[in-house]
């Protein structure tokens, strides 16, 4: 279906894309889970990350996927030892020397004695002995075959460590096979160089794969895929070498260098290694990482593959942890995930990505400059959830007596009426409305002779009522780090959102402002409050919070002023005359004096000031009793889990008191 401007809709065959008949993606549970974390004191980013870590019904989250990867990592560490090629070469060398000595021993000729002396003088290290025997004239056929097997093993393993599956391709290799390898390496070096220079290489890549594709069974589809695969293996080869002991590393490096030299590949492979480093400098070149440590001896190629797998699993585990700056689900490599855990794991990841997209598409989350924020739609839902929980507590304890059914209703009737105006919510004066309609239509002809009266807009009248006094509520919430340490920050945050939701949705004639204070104070929008984690700054600057509260109350002079303070400590900070914050613990007399002075200014506005003290520490209790006595308020000492119940009940009690006057 498509929309044509000015011509309605046109229907046609569905040609792919999202299923237009698919049910809408249900985000209710996900939004509520995020809300639970936010109301518990987390920020939005932390709440979203927690949801993705837990996963959804029937789908694994990032934590479980990462645990599965770590299990796979532990298994990969048991793949075997890295010195398999070196051990195999030593065994073949011992076999060759033993067979040659058996052949020489019965021969009385002086040449046999000289040969024995040459064998006795061989270097002690394996690589040196193999090099010294390169031109040795073997008498024993068994010894000659063993030495040739050393050469063949080294050629295959060394190339297999650079090019996966090369060992199988070079089995029983002829000179023409080795020449094909030399041609491939030369062409590959040119291709990588061209890519590094920024040249267009699509055609060159296609020609390269047509000519040498048999050496790359993984069938890369682009030069980028080819380079990525080769560079990862080259970096894994370096990590594998770094995992050997110094003696093993020196011997194996010497054997590899000899082999490359014998095959005429030494300079070309060194150039290729440098080009791959240039193409992928982000890989862990030369770094020592995890290496397998099992019982089975691995050949050079298999050891490189095992180290490469460990590196991939480590990278995948890090991606799934999302514990680094700028982490995103897009960072998780689907190919690595499928290799490690299978296709079902990729489906689980896709479900998490869809959840993240839908939260933004359906308007619950906004992303601004890379920062994730709850939308106003989500904040409203969050506030409603917090309010429902508070009312559930009130109902359970019997302390609520909340009366919100008549929210926004008018005051007492005055007996007078007036013409209805758009936006009026006063009760309709039915008698005067009908009378106005009758008088307006009196004398008008009625062809049907019926007595019907047609009421027009101008006929409506409403009864006048006494103007109900609204309230201006300033809720001051302590943001100091001690709130988190005592586990009361989540309760304070949830309470603030519940009260804001109650006032804005049930009592729109009232006004509310949430003010957070730590070393300084700030006015908090609901969206900001939802995102907020507890302030790690030191200080409880109640003085500054009360200054902001007075400014708010001054803008609502016709409303009844109410100040509610939620805190867990004495004031430890104040503003200096130049506006800079000052902090000291224990509290300085000047801090207490400046705070008390601000309390008295609030009291002179006629505001009621109630304090909810979350710590029974005697100094705090003494202080809050002193300031509430000055401002004509009360002190409450609720447990953290009942804070919302106390604050909302106090607000509702204050409203009932206003209506009774």
TrEMBL record:
Chain segments carrying region Disordered: 1-20
Ranges that cross the membrane: none
For this protein, the record's Pfam families field holds: VWA_2
The domain of life for this entry's organism is Bacteria
Write down the SUPFAM superfamilies for this protein, in alphabetical order. vWA-like
Q: Which residue stretches does the UniProt record annotate as biased composition, category Basic residues?
A: 1-13
- Enumerate the spans annotated as VWFA domain: 470-652
Q: What is the protein name for this chain?
A: Uncharacterized protein, contains von Willebrand factor type A (VWA) domain
State the species of origin: Trujillonella endophytica
